[in-house]
From TrEMBL:
Keywords: Hydrolase, Protease, Thiol protease. Belongs to the peptidase C40 family. GO terms for biological process: proteolysis. Gene3D superfamilies: endopeptidase domain like (from Nostoc punctiforme). This is NlpC/P60 family protein. The keyword Protease applies.
């Protein structure tokens, strides 16, 4: 999670996986790689990994997925907040988990 938070302010670039710019799944892939865990560079594929958790059970580092079909992923950082790379023109930032609309899945990888 600290690796993801260290990217706050970096620009969003579609298809980017770091170290200086990211898209949503590139950011989560990069952060997990720093912890020695390999994730695909696809929010949809990441949404099928790990184990499902409920919102009440979210822990920092868990992944949160949005839309149907899944097309966005963020990382939970605690206190109802997430870090994510959202869209062109917006930097990596920390926002409310509810800022993207309906959550479709929450997963714990590890």
């Amino acid at each position: 999670m600290q690796t993801a938070l260290a990217q706050v302010g970096d620009p969003y670039v579609w298809g980017a996986g770091g170290p200086n710019s990211f898209d949503c799944s590139g950011l989560t892939q990069y952060a997990y790689a720093a912890a020695g865990i390999s994730l695909p560079h696809s929010s949809s594929m990441q949404s099928r990994m790990g184990t499902a958790v409920s919102r009440a059970d979210l822990q920092p580092g868990d992944l949160i997925f949005y839309y149907s079909p899944v097309s966005h992923v963020s990382m939970y950082v605690g206190n109802g907040q997430m870090v994510h790379a959202s869209t062109s023109g917006q930097p990596v930032k920390v926002v409310s988990v509810d800022s993207m609309g309906g959550i479709t899945a929450m997963r714990r990888i590890a």
